[in-house]
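Have a think about this chain, tokens included, and walk me through the fold.
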Amino acid sequence: MSGRPFHQKPYGFVEWFRPGEYEWAEETLPGLLESGASFLRTHVSWAEYLAPGGEEWFDWLIPKIGPAIDLLPCIHYTPPSMSRTGKTSGPPHDLKAYADFVDHVLTRYGRHFEHIELWNEPNNLLDWDWRLDTDFQMFCEMVGGAAYWAQKRGWKTVLGGPSPFDPYWLNLMGERGVLGVVDAVGFHGFPGTWESEENTWAGWDHHMGEMRNVVERYNQDAAIWITEAGYSTWRNGELEQVRHFVDTMKSSADRLYWYGWRDIPGDVAVQEGHWFDPRHYHLGVVDRSNRPKLLARLLTEGGPQRLAEFADLPAPAINEGIRPVVITGGCGFIGANLADSLLCDGEDVVILDNLGRLGVDQNLHWLKDRHGDRAHPFLADVRDLPAIENAFADASAVFHFAGQTAVTTSLVHPLDDFEINARGTINVLEAVRRSGRRAPVIFSSTNKVYGSLEDISLVEEEERYTPLDDILRRHGVAETRPLDFHTPYGCSKGAADQYVLDYARSHGIPTGVLRMSCIYGERQFGTEDQGWVAHFLLKALSGEPITIFGDGKQVRDILEIGDAVRAYRLLLSRIEKMPGRVFNLGGGSQNAVSLLQLLREIGRIVGHPVDVRHEGWREGDQLYFVADTRRLIEETGWQAQTEWRRGIRTLADWLRENRFSGGDREQRRRAAE
């Protein structure tokens, strides 16, 4: 890896496949290749191979993955019946038996790989007493003999990485002749994850230099590989994982294997039948459900060059005396538009975001391009209170948009939904309270806190549902409507909604809540579950079919983003006079439209009827929701100014320019590459 820019260096991953994980192995390989990985390190466990079914497992696994990627098998774990200690981590009674097994692996599977790794983390094994000269001699005889014969047979050998790095142990390996019969030496390092490393970690340059000094003393041709390096996202530090990956890529090592690809399932005992520190279970770049974390997504989008755009973003550097506005979820659709409005008026804005959603980094680049140093990225996750606390130290006001936004996702991943929406909101409130600044907090809530509204009597018309009640028909649903949390999303947002209001009562923080209907407009990247207006337009402009759930007669009052931004700013300007209040925010009855009516208008915009397909109703869907905004109008003077047809046409023009004509920064960047 030395001598080339880091974004041009190849990289690989570690994935310890366990016997019987056929489906996971099948799923992993495409993801690895799509991420741009050149290498894969996995293990061939001697103990598992000789266990029932082990031979059949490895007979399937190695030929499956070996032809597709440069494979490094690590051969370790003594069968307990052959171990001097009765454990898989102990040395065998007959040291030559290890070399015999290596020889067997080379004969049976050797056509599928070029290198073979001999043992794993040898100096970290409690069953080798490295204070005893006999144990040094046993290990050197066991591994040295296997390496010598593997080289004689034409394979290249890798010495398992010492962990933690110990130059004295490595030097003894040289004195005993082991370094002379290997082609590469492994290194393990997890800075920022394990305290044991933090106490001794001196940086990649220092440790790589230390290692080269030892290795070149005994074998100048041997390469140095980082065979395990990683960062745990157990506190949701996905951006930190990206930064650590980039730092590791910048090292002088000749090859990198990142640990690991997938988070380890919580029911797996990772070593010797024991469950480890929870950090061990969150080292993957995809989670247990195979959902990509930020690192996997960025690698898939554009490799290490894509990572550099994120890793090089500086921490906020705000001049003393400046009290910025903090926007959580500030790279999202509403957050970015609000940030732009404030920045245009001369405010400094801290844009707190974890960049976890597809496309939001484009909004961050847009804000930086337009406003330069007054737009301060603060890349962190609201679930991690210690990581976000400093963002609020000098805040003049806080707008809290960060959240999980889809009902469907909440049904599949309710714990994540709760942690992001409920716990994340308390973290924001606590960070503000601890700052002592008493900064106002305005929270983006949802109409879903009113439940499914099944008790509203509706008339089914040709293209829409209409309430029988005259007040509902003329004004919509008011804030006096009883709360009725449906679906995990409704529960998490509803709980957050109530905590925000209570912090005004309990802690004297000026807070406000806006329960939003459907917002649309520029900078929206549209999915079925969130940003569905933009999603419909994107599908129609691309000539693709649009799927709607239910009959399409359900009604929403849609609000253009400029009107929404004005509402948030007006509420902030009056928050000290009316803290702890809740307001509905939507387009009102004048902008109430059914999905079928919206699709008909989109057909006019694109010049042809759209291809509509129907699926069944989804959990928590409301047949009718229109926000009664009279309270907001009376208290702030706000009015929705953009008629929905005009707003939809404006959004369509923006999408044509920025998503289909190369106008967007991201489109231009990719085209340049």
Notes: DSSP finds 23 helices and 23 strands in the chain. Residues 6-311 form a domain with the TIM Barrel fold (CATH 3.20.20.80). The first strand starts at residue 12 and ends at 14. The chain has a mean pLDDT of 91.
